[in-house]
Amino acid sequence: MRGARTFRSAGGTTVGAIFFATVLSLFAANEILKVQGQVSRLPGPGTNLVYRTDSGVTYNLKRTPASEALFVDTNLWPKHLLLAGNLLGNSFEVTGNLRSIKDGKVHELLYYCDVCSVSSSVPGLCVCCREPTVLTERPEHDN
Ligand SMILES: [Zn+2]
């Protein structure tokens, strides 16, 4: 009982702090950029990628869960990509789903399992049936 009361009295403060932090992060967050370009690998050990934009600027591609597929699936390297993300100095951090431009249209890049009709943002085995997933480009808008 005493635990419940303590939790409740702390609740107001927590909600206030979360609200304050949200407002702060809205102001502090970098603008999300949508940039077309292509990835290429830097020479040397390990997998280090750069993102070469159509305008000719090159950024280091940050390896995060959102960009992981680009580091492990070389099939993505020749593609004309549309990446959404933040600029952190000379680095580009992908924040959204991976997209490509194909036949002048935006496509979602995903890894699809035909057996289960399950898609994933990273290559590998299906989380459901453990069969290999297939890289799929799906038109973002059917129009
Ligand atoms: Zn499956």
Give me the CATH fold name of the largest domain.
OB fold (Dihydrolipoamide Acetyltransferase, E2P)
Radius of gyration: 20 Å
Structural class: alpha+beta
Which ranges are low-confidence, i.e. pLDDT below 50, for 5 or more consecutive residues?
A: 1-11
Neighbour order of strands in the largest sheet: 1-2-3-5-4
Percent helix range:
10-25%
Query: What is the average per-residue confidence, as pLDDT, rounded to a whole number?
Result: 85
How much β-strand is present in the residues? Answer: 35-45%
The number of strands is 9
Instruction: State the CATH class of the largest domain.
Output: Mainly Beta
**What count of domains describes the coordinates?**
2
In DSSP terms (H or I, runs of 4 or more residues), the helix count works out at 2
Bound molecules: zinc ion
Order of helices and strands: HEEEHEEEEEE
Largest pleated sheet: 5 strands, mixed, barrel
Q: What would you say the CATH architecture of the largest domain is?
A: Beta Barrel
Outline the fold blueprint.
Elements lengths: L1 H27 L4 E9 L7 E5 L4 E4 L6 H5 L8 E8 L2 E4 L4 E4 L2 E9 L4 E3 L13 E6 L4
Parallel strand pairs: 3-5
Antiparallel strand pairs: 1-2, 1-4, 2-3, 4-5, 4-6, 6-7, 7-8, 7-9
The chain binds zinc ion.
The site of zinc ion (ZN) has 8 residues, from loops.
Characterise the protein shown here:
By secondary structure, this protein is an alpha+beta fold. The chain has two helices and nine strands; from the N terminus they run H-E-E-E-H-E-E-E-E-E-E. The radius of gyration is 20 Å and the shape is globular. Residues 1-11 have low confidence and may be disordered. Zinc ion is lined by residues 113, 115-116, 118, 126, 128-129, 131.
